[in-house]
Inverse folding.
């Protein structure tokens, strides 16, 4: 598996994990879990961009 494909998978996992934490945090009114979820989603988005850059170079 190429590096960019591996990075894309990691990005997808972080985005999915972040979405779940965000939703659970929202449903249970757990602000810290919600914030953690948003950070995971942001990290996933950054990893996604890095994978795109690697793929095009």
């Amino acid at each position: 598996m190429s590096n960019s494909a591996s990075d894309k998978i990691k990005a997808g996992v972080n985005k999915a994990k972040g979405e779940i934490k965000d939703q659970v945090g929202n449903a249970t009114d757990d602000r810290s879990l919600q914030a953690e979820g948003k950070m995971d989603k942001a990290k996933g988005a950054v990893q996604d961009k890095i994978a795109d850059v690697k793929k095009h170079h």
Summary: Residues 13 and 48 are 11 Å apart (CA to CA). The helical segments are 3-27, 31-55. The mean pLDDT is 94. The radius of gyration is 13 Å.
